[in-house]
Design goal:
Layout (H helix, E strand, L loop, with lengths): L1 E8 L9 E2 L4 E5 L6 H13 L18 E9 L15 E8 L4 E6 L2 E3 L2 H7 L2 E4 L5 H4 L2 H15 L3 H20 L5 H40 L7 E6 L8 H7 L1 H7 L10 E6 L2 E2 H4 L2 H21 L5 E4 L8 H14 L2 E6 L5 H4 L8 E7 L2 E4 L1
Parallel strand pairs: 3-13, 3-14, 8-12, 12-13
Antiparallel strand pairs: 1-2, 1-4, 4-5, 5-6, 6-7, 9-10, 10-11, 14-15
Helix pairs in contact: 4-6, 4-10, 5-6, 6-10, 10-11
The chain binds adenosine-5'-triphosphate (ATP).
The site of adenosine-5'-triphosphate has 15 residues, from α1.
Length: about 375
């Protein structure tokens, strides 16, 4: 599905006027501080339930207000739903946050829903912003987040398994921190923890394998010299030549001293190596950014194969990317058939984004003082 209507209330500097978007490409340009990122951030709220740039909801509420709302209308996009025409709204999503009451309200088609995954399942959003480097250069948590995004969209039940595992891990950590270790209680937590860890790892591993196949096919197609010699490997969070139960039993004393769980899915990672060395130590920033975008496109193609359309939010496409890399990525996003929002400070030139080919369907917007004007 694609987001074809957006309306916000009290969201940063954005105007409350409704906007219609293309289910294909949307090019947004405007001066610094005009509101381009805020538009992407509002769209991101509908698919992620949070801001992709700040951790506090408070920051996005317009100054002097205490509550913001974002409404979105989705069309059938290229999803095989058999419902509606392209551009015709078939699902409505809404999120409102009252920061004074600390209350979030979620709606799908007018009905209140409790879980964010109900929104996320309708609108898979993939963000490519200046923070995207973290997937390569940041800690393992960023790569787990990257992988789990695809895992969730492949297997929605992953969200609840993960939450259960977090609860059990927290109970287990409390038991580890107790002065006198209660071995029998710990064994109960271990049994639950290992069962959940194995379920999580199984779906992570199979999604990673799928991702790797898509990524390698993409890299072969784009034929960029520096991608040769890249190696991606999934690390589940423990040495799987031994069972997790044995590892936990063998490291009781170490975990008791540290006061928390040291082995399992909370330690999982994707290891990215180039000619045997970590990519973060070898690649330039432009190469790192291109690599992460290719990884995100590969994830998009997994969903696309499942008949789901991803909405890509590409903030400031020009930062770090030369014309050749920009064109290569724009062309790949196009062949994926996904919905894309691209922002830039300068007026975007479709001939530069898609050189030597006819530009895809797009709508162009000028952003000024939080207001979008279509050109
Ligand atoms: N809570 C808020 N209430 C009102 N205005 C806000 C709030 N938060 C930020 N702003 C203002 O909203 C404007 C939009 O910021 P935004 O980051 O979306 O701009 P941008 O067009 O992406 O800029 P740049 O090109 O510099 O990245 C800025 O002028 C900012 O000062």
């Amino acid at each position: 599905m694609a987001l074809v209507k957006l309306q916000t209330e009290h969201f940063r500097n954005l105007s409350p006027a409704p906007v219609s978007f293309s289910p294909s490409f949307n090019l947004l340009y405007g001066e610094n501080g005009s509101g381009k990122t805020s538009i992407l951030e509002a769209i991101g709220y509908l698919g992620l339930g949070r801001s992709f740039r700040v951790s506090r909801h408070q920051a996005v509420v317009s100054h002097g207000e205490h509550r913001f709302t974002v409404f979105g209308g989705l069309d059938c996009g290229f999803d095989d739903t058999g419902l509606g025409e392209a551009g015709e709204v078939i699902h409505r999503l809404g999120i409102a946050r009252d920061v004074a009451q600390k209350e979030t309200m979620l709606r799908v088609d007018g009905e209140g829903v409790r879980s964010l995954s109900a929104l996320a399942a309708h609108l898979p959003v993939s963000v490519i912003d200046p923070g995207v480097f973290d997937v390569v250069a940041g800690g393992p948590g960023k790569r787990r987040q990257f992988l789990d995004w695809a895992v969730f969209h492949v297997e929605h039940s992953f969200a609840s398994t993960w939450q259960q595992c977090q609860r059990v891990t927290s109970q287990r950590n409390q038991t580890l921190r107790n002065g006198r270790l209660d071995e029998s209680l710990l064994r109960v937590w271990d049994a639950q923890y290992t069962a959940l860890s194995e379920r999580i790892t199984e779906v992570r591993q199979s999604t990673f394998d799928l991702f790797k196949t898509h990524f390698e096919a993409l890299v072969a197609e784009v034929d960029i010299g520096w991608t040769q010699g890249l190696k991606l490997e999934f690390y589940p969070g423990w040495d799987t030549s031994q069972s997790l139960v044995d590892i936990l039993a063998n490291h009781r004393e170490q975990e008791r001293r540290m006061g928390h769980t040291l082995y399992g899915p909370n330690r999982a990672d994707i290891r990215l190596k180039f000619q045997g060395r970590p990519v973060a130590e070898t690649f330039s920033r432009g190469q790192q950014k291109t690599l992460v975008i290719l990884m995100k496109i590969a994830q998009g193609s997994i969903l696309s194969e499942m008949g789901k359309q991803v909405t890509f939010l590409l903030d400031d496409i020009n930062a770090e990317l030369d014309i050749g890399h920009r064109a290569m990525l724009a062309s790949k996003l196009r062949s994926l058939g996904c919905q894309v929002f691209i922002t830039s400070i300068e007026h975007p030139e479709p001939d530069v984004l898609w050189p030597g080919e006819e530009a895809p369907d797009y709508r162009m917007f000028h952003v000024e003082h939080g207001k979008l004007t279509e050109e």
